[in-house]
Structure formats: structure tokens, C-alpha cells
């Protein structure tokens, strides 16, 4: 059994090499021998903007919806943890059997060890609820996730929402300079400490592996904590492999 985890791709352009590469990985998963042993977790911010049901998105990212549909038909277990850039998605995926989650998912695994099979648990979250002190963000999140916004998002044309999103979007160079790896060290360390403490706490609660994203800090505490980093720059995703009982970083194939 294997679990593929993707987050924070922040796709904006269906022609981008990262998007094409991502589709290629999903396509490969659909060719796996035992699809029912495959779990695919979209752990938030896959797209830089994807909110509500809209034919604009269905057309723009048609290849993604098609491959997700294919995975679903092959009985791959699919999960979508909504992020802060992609939410109110249920109606957008009405063709596929996919489990939507508001915050996190727990996946039980049973790796074979010298002493026999042991039950372990993967905890996967987008990570935007790690900082519970950020009351401004938490209020905004609650508002965006509300029924009112859900109804509005399904009425307002996607192209219009996209226009508003475009006004506030920045270039990849700007986004790269905003990454924690380019922050003053003490700020980056404060962020890292926050995420690591959260991961340690989850580990104490009995989760053997903790996988987070959102903060774009390419960090890990082996063997149990992994942060996705920022795939537009770091170009990686994660796989938990039951046979090896470990989480691995894998490079997106170059296109
Ligand atoms: Mn995020």
C-alpha cells in the first residue's frame, strides 16, 4: 500500500511544467497494479485559486478533472483536504468518488516489521490551523468557509473570481523571495518551531507520521515529520510506502 501526498502546488497556469508534471504522476498512479492499495491525498492549495462549482475551472483544468475521474474509476482512494486557496469544491468533483476534508485526514497503515504487522497512523493536514494565535486568519478562514461564501462562489462566474485573484497574484520570483528560506533566520526559526511543536504534539498523540504543508518551509524531522515546502520551487511531493515503512520525498518528473 502506498500513499501519495501533494500540496501547495499553487497551480495558476494549465500550460505550466509543474502542472503537466503533476498530471503525469497522477496518470502513472492510474496504471498501478493494485489501485485499491493506492491512496492519493490532495492536501490543499493544489490550485492558487479554485473556489466553488464553475465551468470555467472545469474547462481550465479539464485534464486534472479527467485524471481524477480515471483514478476514481480504478478505485484509488482519493482525498481532498481543502486549503486556503481551494475550497467549496464538493460540487466541482461530482463525477469522482473523492472524500473532502475540512482540515486533516488520518490514514491507518500496517507495515510489516520483523515482529509482524503493526498498526500505524498517518496524520495529514494542510497546516493552516497550526498557528492558533493568528486570530485574524482564523476569522477570515471561518468567513471564507461559510455557507454564504459557498452559495456566492457557486453563482459568481469563475472567470470573474479569477480576475479578482489575478489582481492580487504575484510572479514566481516574488513568491520565491517570500519563502521562509529567504526570511531573516530568527523569523524562519520561529515558524519552524511552531510547525515542529505541532508535529511533535501529534506524534505524542499517537500519530506515527505527521505531514503538513501551507507554510512553504521545506523542513522535516526524520522519521516522523515532513513539510511539503513549495513545489513551484522545490518540485517535490511525498510518498508513504508501506513496504519500506517510511515517507520519501520524490521529485516531479522534469518536463
Ligand atoms: Mn495554504
Structure explained in plain terms:
Helix 1 (17-30) packs parallel to helix 3. This protein is 36% helix and 23% strand. It has one domain (2-251): Purple Acid Phosphatase, chain A, domain 2, CATH 3.60.21. The model has no long low-confidence stretch (mean pLDDT 92). The strands form 4 sheets. Strands 6-4-2-1-14-15 form a 6-stranded mixed β-sheet, covered by helices on one side. Strands 7-10-11-13-12 form a 5-stranded mixed β-sheet, covered by helices on one side. The longest helix has 20 residues, at 185-204. By secondary structure, it is α/β, with parallel strands linked by helices. The structure holds manganese (II) ion.
- Tell how many strands the DSSP assignment holds: 15
Specify Rg, calculated over alpha carbons.
18 Å
The spatial strand order of the largest sheet comes to 6-4-2-1-14-15
Level-2 CATH architecture: 4-Layer Sandwich
Number of helix segments? 9
Contiguous uncertain segments of 5+ residues: none
How far apart the termini lie comes to 28 Å
Strand content: 15-25%
Q: What are the bound molecules?
A: manganese (II) ion
Averaged pLDDT, please? 92
The CATH class label is: Alpha Beta
Amino acid at each position: 500500500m502506498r500513499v501519495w501526498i501533494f500540496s501547495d502546488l499553487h497551480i495558476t497556469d494549465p500550460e505550466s511544467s509543474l502542472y503537466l508534471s503533476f498530471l503525469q504522476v497522477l496518470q502513472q498512479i492510474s496504471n498501478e497494479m493494485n489501485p485499491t492499495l493506492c491512496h492519493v491525498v490532495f492536501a490543499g492549495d493544489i490550485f492558487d485559486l479554485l473556489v466553488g462549482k464553475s465551468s470555467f475551472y472545469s474547462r481550465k483544468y479539464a485534464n486534472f478533472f479527467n485524471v481524477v475521474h480515471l483514478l476514481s474509476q480504478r478505485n484509488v482512494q482519493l482525498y481532498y483536504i481543502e486549503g486556503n486557496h481551494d475550497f467549496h469544491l464538493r460540487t466541482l468533483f461530482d463525477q469522482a468518488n473523492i472524500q473532502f476534508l475540512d482540515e486533516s485526514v488520518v490514514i491507518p497503515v500496517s507495515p510489516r516489521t520483523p515482529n509482524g504487522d503493526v498498526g500505524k497512523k498517518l496524520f495529514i493536514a494542510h497546516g493552516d490551523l497550526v498557528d492558533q494565535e493568528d486570530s485574524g486568519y482564523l476569522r477570515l478562514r471561518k468567513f471564507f468557509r461559510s455557507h454564504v461564501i459557498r452559495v456566492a462562489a457557486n453563482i459568481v462566474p469563475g472567470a470573474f473570481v479569477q480576475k479578482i485573484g489575478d489582481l492580487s497574484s504575484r510572479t514566481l520570483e516574488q513568491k520565491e523571495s517570500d519563502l521562509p528560506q529567504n526570511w531573516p533566520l530568527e523569523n524562519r526559526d520561529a515558524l519552524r518551531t511552531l510547525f515542529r511543536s505541532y508535529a511533535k504534539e501529534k506524534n505524542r498523540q499517537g500519530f506515527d507520521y505527521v505531514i503538513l504543508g501551507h507554510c512553504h518551509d521545506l523542513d522535516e524531522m526524520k522519521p516522523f515529520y515532513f513539510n511539503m515546502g513549495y513545489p513551484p520551487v522545490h518540485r517535490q511531493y511525498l510518498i508513504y510506502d508501506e513496504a519500506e515503512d517510511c515517507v520519501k520525498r520524490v521529485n516531479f518528473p522534469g518536463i
